[in-house]
């Protein structure tokens, strides 16, 4: 039968609110029912609302960091397969030709004279000391391996002839009573110095 008076509704409300307080069993049962209802709402509501798919990389929070970063994505096949560029960005520098420096020619002649000077009994150390004023420090160790007794010349027989001349180096042919010497002379902070030689035919 429908409740038509305010007094009747109040009696029904008192009976509903007072149910958990009638006994400890009613109180525990009511608490369990409330907890179950809250858990069910927490599970069902997100499923009903759905989780829209996000495009792009998933944010990742680094522990201890104050900012959020994104996971890197794999490079596309077009960028991954592109070979590195091997084209030169600038042309190689070429040495600048220049008229031969007389001081460089003088050093080449003095070096050739010292090279051909090896009287009987001279040691390698004495022979190298004669070359030292005209030779770079980097080239002297190679000359220290030469036995002066095996040098097939005893004197210079002519003036140096320039074969190539640049602002910082030149190549000179110096005749001896043995082979001609092809000598490379370079400009250094200490002046012109011999950096190498070869026996020309």
Description:
The chain has 201 residues and is α+β, with helices and mostly antiparallel strands. The protein has 6 helices and 6 strands. The strands form 2 sheets. Strands 3-4-5-6 form a 4-stranded antiparallel sheet, with helices on one face. It has a two-stranded antiparallel ribbon with strand order 1-2. Residues 65-69 have low confidence and may be disordered.
Topology diagram in text:
Blueprint: H1 6-18, H2 24-49, E1 59-61, E2 68-70, H3 77-80, H4 102-116, H5 124-131, H6 140-143, E3 161-165, E4 169-174, E5 180-188, E6 191-200
Which characteristics define this entry?
201 residues; 6 strands; alpha+beta; Nuclear Transport Factor 2, Chain: A; 4-stranded antiparallel sheet; two-stranded antiparallel ribbon; 2 domains
CATH topology of the largest domain: Nuclear Transport Factor 2, Chain: A
Helix content: 25-40%
* Annotated CATH architecture of the largest domain: Roll
Any idea how many domains?
2
End-to-end span in angstroms?
A: 135 Å
The total of beta strands comes to 6
Following the backbone from N to C, one meets helices and strands in this order, namely: HHEEHHHHEEEE
Task: State the gist of this model.
By secondary structure, the chain is α+β, with helices and mostly antiparallel strands.
